[in-house]
Design brief:
Elements (H helix, E strand, L loop, with lengths): L7 E7 L6 H6 L10 E8 L4 H12 L3 E5 L4 H10 L5 E4 L5 E2 L1 H11 L6 E10 L29 E3 H7 L12 H11 L4 E13 L11 H14 L1 H23 L4 H9 L6 H9 L1
Parallel strand pairs: 1-2, 1-4, 2-3, 6-8
Antiparallel strand pairs: 4-7, 5-8, 6-7
InterPro entries: Glyco_trans_2-like, Glycosyltransf_2, Nucleotide-diphossugar_trans
Protein name: Glycosyltransferase
Organism: Sediminibacterium sp. KACHI17
């Protein structure tokens, strides 16, 4: 690995998104990115003839295109990363785009030993009438990650994260939770996250997109049950911490005379809040 000129592998899974993939590729403006780039496109068994034609044209033009049977987003990303040469990975969905500043700002952070994953906020475009699809990205917290995802799949990370996780989990009952499980797994493996609080990639919202089928409540429930069972030790440790925090805050509220004094002291970090105490107690 060349630490002075590290290769970034951009993995683009594609399922019937041939109409958009050129925009994704064009957003990777190599002359504006300060690091060497490789692009790997994985066709995940697309059934759309126009997509096949586009991907074949890209392959003829010299792009690294891999064709496989449909296996879902996790399988396609795994295929791409397995064939990547870089030690730094950036998954990019075929209908999305990136700003070159994403890589330029994330890589100096990843080159530090204490950061393994860097993610940023999206700019939503497309069908903006679908408000529910405009998800929130927030700073990583190991207690928050167990209740819901904090980052999109479009994040830069060290290849060793993927290797230690054993790749993206292809056994999740239904598509749509692969990235959340991947980040939980990374957190349980001790990898460090960094949130770039900037809009550095573009997330396209498409009417009647395949992802809208992921919002079925029964499927969500089964996916969450699967993730909790798989990472039961991680979840148990967080539940114990959350119970401790709840208990400490309840004690503070019972001491209502002192509460107006305690909370400003917590905010000013003059004394440790229950959350800080829990981190020290259960680390």
């Amino acid at each position: 690995m060349d630490l002075h000129n590290p290769l970034v592998s951009i993995v683009i899974p594609c399922y019937n998104h041939g109409a958009y993939i050129q925009e994704a590729i064009d957003s990777i403006t190599v002359d504006k990115i300060a690091y060497p780039i490789e692009i790997i496109i994985v066709d995940d068994g697309s059934s759309d003839n126009a997509t096949h034609a586009k991907l074949e044209a890209l392959q003829t033009a010299g792009y690294h295109v891999i064709f496989q049977k449909n296996g879902g987003p996790a399988s396609a990303r795994n295929t791409g990363v397995a064939n990547a040469k870089g030690q730094y990975i950036l998954p990019l969905d075929a209908d999305n785009k990136i700003s070159p500043d994403y890589i330029n700002k994330a890589m100096p952070l990843l080159l530090k030993e204490d950061i393994d994953i860097v993610y940023a906020r999206p700019i939503f475009f497309g069908d903006l009438s679908q408000k529910k699809r405009q998800y929130k990205v927030r700073k990583f917290d190991d207690l928050d990650i167990v209740t819901g995802n904090c980052a999109d799949a479009c994040a830069l990370y060290k290849r060793e994260v993927w290797e230690k996780n054993g790749g993206y989990d292809t056994a999740i009952p239904y598509y749509g939770f692969e990235d959340w499980e991947f980040w939980i797994h990374a957190a349980s493996n001790g990898f460090k996250f960094h949130f770039l609080d900037e809009e550095l990639f573009y997330y396209r919202i498409i009417n009647n997109s395949v992802i809208t089928g992921y919002s079925n409540e029964d499927r969500i429930k089964l996916n969450k049950q699967y993730i909790i069972k798989k990472h039961s030790d991680f979840y148990l440790e967080k539940i114990i911490r959350l119970s401790y925090i709840k208990e400490r805050y309840e004690v503070d509220m019972l001491r209502f005379i002192l509460t107006p004094i305690l909370y400003p002291l917590y905010l000013l970090k003059i004394i440790d809040s229950p959350i800080v105490r829990s981190r020290k107690k259960f680390k």
